[in-house]
UniProtKB/TrEMBL annotation:
It comes from Pristionchus mayeri. GO terms for cellular component: lysosome; membrane; nucleus. Residues 366-388 are annotated as: Disordered. This is MTOR-associated protein MEAK7. It comes from the Eukaryota. InterPro entries: TLDc_dom.
Amino acid sequence: MGAHHSHAKKEDFPNLNNDQINALLNNLKKHTTSTTFSAADVSTILPYWGEYAKVAFENLARKEGSKKGVLPFSLLVQQANLLEGIASEQADGLTNLFGDKWREALVACSRHLLSLTAEDAAALLSILRTDKSSNLTNLLTANRLAAELVHLPFKELLEMQSTPPLAVLNGKTSLLSRSAQVVLRAHIPVEYRQTWQLLFSSNEHGSSFAQLTHQVDGQGPCFVVVKTTKNRVFGCYASHGFHVGPTYLGDTLCFLFSIVPEIRVFEPTGFNKKYCYLNIQQETLANGLGVGGSDINWPFFISEEYGKGMATPHSSSFEKCDLAGETNFEIDTLEIWRVGPPPQKKKERSILDKDPQAQALLEIAGRQMHSEGFRDAKPILDDEEDEE
């Protein structure tokens, strides 16, 4: 084993943890004991880089001013360390390796590691190209997809068991393409990215708003995804889920999104707090599930009269978007996915704990409280929880 492998230390690569360093060295052992690498070595060690392995070698050689056809392995390891750093370091690493081809290189890595179709890969590339920021550091800071994909080039070398940036789906989907899963996953909190549970599917549960309401009410953060009869696919992310009632839930983590004809995410404007709404059987209020609107102006709304929806292109709550391509749409397929763990159920507490006056009246009447000896001395919920 060469010295460059055996003497690698944590302080030499501050952005890599010990497990990553060990994995990196063990993976390099499989390919070479030399202290240098050639363009062919890059293609062998990192085959999922495809044509961008040669691009990376040529860029690094040009940067080093080397014409020997080989480069020190420490140079490649340095780039892996940069891509695990802060945005400015990641920008340096991408530029060192791929220059202005960094978008194409990241998508090439994604296509291999995530088993993407050509269509899925094209969708990711389209999103990266949409961001026209001339400052790569700022782009990596603001663009959540780029910030997720930047870790992929050295992923298989740094992790003994590579885990791609895709959630585990508990249920079958006909609406969430793999590219859509990657994009949506990158836009939600880290703690909700691992497992998604299918709560409702019109393919499985039928066309019933009552059933939809039963399945989603109080189930926590979720995605709602709709396919219309005109083949548009879009939806929303509800950061706090939905609860039946006349009030809005959620915060600025909520967003709207389009999947077909193209994948795009539309962030909240912060102008108001009209996020997620679910109400039924009211005479004076909107009846249905919606995000970002009220009355007859909703960027996304599913009517209680199942099968019908509304998507107006102008809303003060979210960035301008025309999700359905028409104001009133008809639903072909609908899916709702909970992200993260199921909500914890609160235990019921005795009416005597909730209402001390009831307990006092029983004692005045001389009634014995037979259940007192079988209950915890302290109430399960405090008064503040009762008021929520």
